Every structure is written in structure tokens, then in C-alpha cells.
Amino acid sequence: MKRHLLITSTLIFRFATALALAGCGQSEAPKLLAKNDPAPAPAVAPAAAPSQPAGSGVVYSARSGSKMRIEGTSNIHDWQVESPFIGGMMEVGPGFPIEPGQAATPGKMDAKADVFIQVRSLKSIEKDGRPYSDMMDKITWEHLKEEQYKRITYHLTELTLKETPKTKDAPYVFDAKGDLAVAGVTNNIAMVVNILPQADKKLEITGTISFKMTQFKVEPPAPKIALGLIKTGDEVKLIFKWIVGQRKAAAPANP
Predict the structure, then answer these.
(1) Dihedral (C-alpha) 151, 186, 183, 210: value to the nearest 10 degrees?
(2) Cα 148 to chain center, whole Å?
(3) What is the pTM of this model?
(4) Which of 7, 8, 232, 244 is paired with 106 by a 20 to 30 Å CA distance?
């Protein structure tokens, strides 16, 4: 009887000890394997997260020397407004000509671009570039709804190389399609652009396109101060030169 009580007490003690250890967050002691027990599977290390592939494109950002001019007509004289600032970025993929005289195959190019100008940067000028009229500046901003839409923007949707240059000093000729947004109205437009790679890792991008102001729901100005005697033509011509330069690669972080 005493022996039975001793065995029972020992079992109860071991069971209580196991519960206490489990409550303290300690793991159970490892079991010995029997002769016919299967070996435990080796621990499998978690799969490493795939690394982000490095971009193969070359990124350009706006540089000084850019300008955009809008030319129009009226029953009094021709007029023009100009902005000396064009902002934005462009990224081109493999095969895009970024060096003077680089070989390139005509066809669709891997390229994307987003371009903008601030409406308030548009100022009226004489044909020789001298300032023209503060009043005309205000009329321009008003008709372009500057208080509501601060920028004119362009988003490139397709770029196709049409002609390669015959000399290193000649540009590559492209057909470009994109979305032009003016005064809150967006239209898809097609135009020819010339891209001339520079020796200092810059690109000079130029082009011209004509369209009607009413395509963007912009009413051709007829200044009230002139009693409606000045009437502006609906069609305008947009001429631009956009200079972009390659972004410098980020310096590697110190270990």
C-alpha cells in the first residue's frame, strides 16, 4: 500500500511539474526516438523575398533652357505668350537613342514622359521677346482658368521613331501621341517631335502643334476694355523646346 501511494505521489508530482514548466513558457524536453521512429524533417529556412529588379530605363528631368510659346491671331495683330519654364520627367528604355549618332531601329519606343508648365508663367511678349502687356497676361490666365487649374500638362502615351538622322547634328524624328490637358479639359493629340541627343547627356526635344482653343472649351478672348472690337482667332500654334538631362545615380549608402 505504501509503495502504491509512493508511485501515485511521484506521478502527480511529475504531472504538476510539467504543467508549471508549460505555464512558464518552457518547452517540453525532447523525446528520444525509438528504433523505428522516422527521423524529423530538417528545418526549412524561409524563402528570401525577391529583390526589386533594377530599372533598365534612363531617367531624365527638366533643365534650364526650355521654353514654350503659344502664337495666335486677332483682327488687330498677331500675338504670342511664352513660358521660359517647362517641368517634368522622361524615362526611356533600351534601344532609345540617347547619344549623338547612335544607331536606332525605327518603330515604337519604350518611353514615358509627363510634362507641365505653370499657367502663370505664360507672359505676353513682342515678337522680339520684349514684354508686351500686363493686362493681356491677366486675360490669358483668366481664360485658361488659372485659379482652378494651375498647370497645363502633357502625358505621353506612345512614341514611334519615324526617321533616323543622316548626320550626328541632325535630330531623330518621332511621331508622338499623348494627352494634353488645358483648363481642365483633356484631349489626345498627335504631333511630330524632334529629339537631338547632346554630348553632355542631355536631350533637346522640340515640336510644333496647332489646335483650336474651343477644343479645350477655352473661349477666344474678346477684351471688354476694347468694347468687343478686338476679336481673337480660335486657332493657335504651340511651339516648344524642352531640355532634359540624365538624373545622377544616387550615391551608395555607407555600410
Answers:
(1) 90
(2) 22
(3) 0.74
(4) 244
